[in-house]
Specification:
17 helices, 36% helix
Length: 417
């Protein structure tokens, strides 16, 4: 295997659901050794997510017994799995042994849970001052009493974070209600910031020898993005918070119907607008004072979009794309379905998407996403499927903590592993 950017870095993964496991998935793709820790019997919420795959690779929405969730299989590729009861004193002792031999701890437990277990940053730092300890929370950990901040008492599922962050208020039709973004964007954005923080802390550790805590939240990750659209200023100028499929500040910039689908057009410059009007057979519109500049077009976006829709709705998608994109260089593309993208041969060849693999059944009739980072001198990939629960418990505890067969048997008998 080619060199891996994070080869030699060991991560203890105490995460569940999507945000944390996605972060450790990225670290695994970059070459880190990720050891996923679950309670005996498994405690990752994703294990209960339909659809499921049987041991023979059959897919269905109902778990028929010991089936594996496709969500779990996708989010935990390239990791090792151990079962360890962290509520037991013996389990905590084993964990600290693992922490001494590791570089990173990554947790997204409910707020304060790691500290209540005795496994928070200060406790781990006491046994390994070089540890980089990442806490990924839903709503952040601001100073002060949670009792004074009602938002902190809300369970931070992705839709809750979208609602609290203001992101949902920007999505939807002008006269319609706020809409949830189709992908779990908070669950996917925050772990990327977490990975950036972890890598930065590792680089600093190489200079200082000291680890540190990395603190990232889903709410703060989304909220930090809102100012990039200057929504405060635009709304004071009369712009509604939601504009549907159009970005009217840059009009014409939106999604338009065709005979057989939809096209996205982004003609944000005067030159592209002139080319669009020419394709429509209306070069005269460039002299119309409503459309003769970016400011006027923004102020008269509804009228402009109606004219473009009238033109595109009488044409096939391919014809619009050819007329604008191929012949005139105007940014324009077909709106593809999710199924079309997941069957894209070029994306598959690049490793951006690929078949989801079951640890015993092999390739499933399902698609998984890769980590789309291409490096000229190193490999970024997830060559191993998600492990079966506890598949690596004995091997990891022998290798890293030095436990012998007798000790392993005693811990298993006590229910600690």
């Amino acid at each position: 295997m080619a060199d891996r950017p994070l080869a030699g870095i060991r991560v203890l993964d105490m995460t569940t659901a999507l945000s944390g496991p996605y972060g450790t998935l990225v670290l695994a793709a970059l070459g880190a050794e990720v050891i996923k820790i679950e309670a005996p019997g498994g405690n990752d919420l994703a294990r209960t997510n339909p659809p499921f795959a049987t041991a023979d690779g059959e897919l269905g929405l109902i778990n028929t017994g010991d089936d594996e969730s496709l969500s779990f299989l996708a989010r935990n590729r390239g990791k090792r799995s151990i079962e360890l009861d962290l509520k037991h004193e013996a389990g905590r002792e084993v964990f600290f042994g693992l922490a001494r031999a590791s570089d990173v701890v990554f947790e997204n437990l409910s707020d304060g849970a790691a500290d209540r277990l005795g496994l928070g940053y200060e406790a781990v730092r006491a046994v390994n001052p070089a540890i980089v300890y990442c806490s990924l929370s839903g709503l952040g950990r601001p100073e002060g009493s949670a009792a004074d901040q009602p938002a902190l008492r809300v369970k931070a599922m992705d839709i809750i974070v979208q609602a609290l962050s203001g992101a949902m208020d920007t999505t939807g039709e002008v006269d319609g209600p706020p809409l949830r973004f189709g992908l779990p964007v908070a669950d996917l954005m925050a772990p990327l910031y977490a990975v950036i923080g972890i890598q930065s802390a590792l680089i600093q550790r190489a200079r200082t020898g000291e680890g540190q805590r990395v603190d990232v939240s889903m709410l703060e990750s989304l909220a930090s993005l809102l100012p990039f659209e200057h929504l405060d200023v635009l709304q004071r100028a009369g712009y509604p918070p939601r504009s549907g499929n159009f970005h009217n500040r840059l009009a014409p910039f939106g999604v338009y119907p065709t005979v057989d689908g939809h096209v996205a057009i982004a003609a944000a410059s005067d030159a592209w607008v002139a080319a669009l009007f020419d394709a429509m057979g209306r070069p005269d519109l460039m002299a119309d004072p409503r459309f003769a500049g970016r400011g006027p077009r923004a102020a008269n976006s509804a009228a402009l979009n109606a004219l473009i829709e009238e033109w595109t709705s009488g044409m096939a998608t391919d014809a619009v794309v050819a007329e604008l994109g191929r012949d005139r260089g105007v940014p324009c593309a077909q709106v593809r379905s999710a199924a079309e993208v997941m069957a894209d041969e070029e994306l598959t060849a690049r490793g951006v998407i690929g078949p989801l693999v079951h640890p015993t059944a092999g390739e499933l009739d399902a698609v998984a996403g890769g980590v789309p980072i291409m490096l000229s001198g190193a490999e970024v990939s997830l060559p191993a499927p998600a492990p079966l629960l506890g598949a690596d418990t004995d091997a990891v505890l022998r290798e890293l903590v030095g436990l012998d067969d007798e000790t392993l048997a005693r811990l298993r008998s006590a229910g600690t592993i």
